Amino acid sequence: MEEEDITGHRLPDELHSENTSEKTNMDDNRSDAIISERQVVNVQRMQWKITNNDGTTQLVPKQMIIVEFLGNEVSQNIIINLCNFSVDPYIHPVVQCYKCLRYGHSSKQCKS
C-alpha cells in the first residue's frame, strides 16, 4: 500500500472518518469495540431525519458511524468487532440557503 506524503498540508487537530458496513451493529458511543493505531475520542452513529405523514419528525439510525481520532494523522484502517475496515475522511456537507443562495444557513434560518 502506498503512503501519501502530507508534508506542507495543514491538518485539523481532530479528524472525523466514516465507513459503511452492514455488519456494524454496535451500540452508539461504544469505542471499546474499535481497535486502531490512533486513539479514538468519540464514536457516533449517523442518522436520517424523516418527516412522517402527520408532520412529526424522527431520527432513524444509518448503517454508518463517525469515528473521531485524536491527533492529525489519518489511520489507514480500523478493526471493529474483529472486522477490518478502511478509513475515509468525513467531509461535512455544505449547507446552502435556497432563498438568498448564501452558504452557512438553511432557508428556515434565513434573515433576508
TrEMBL record:
Residues 1-32 are annotated as: Disordered. Residues 97-112 form the CCHC-type domain. It comes from the Eukaryota. The keyword Zinc-finger applies. One of its GO terms (molecular function) is zinc ion binding. Signal peptide: none annotated. Keywords: Metal-binding, Zinc, Zinc-finger. Residues 1-31 have a biased composition (Basic and acidic residues). This is CCHC-type domain-containing protein. It comes from Diabrotica balteata.
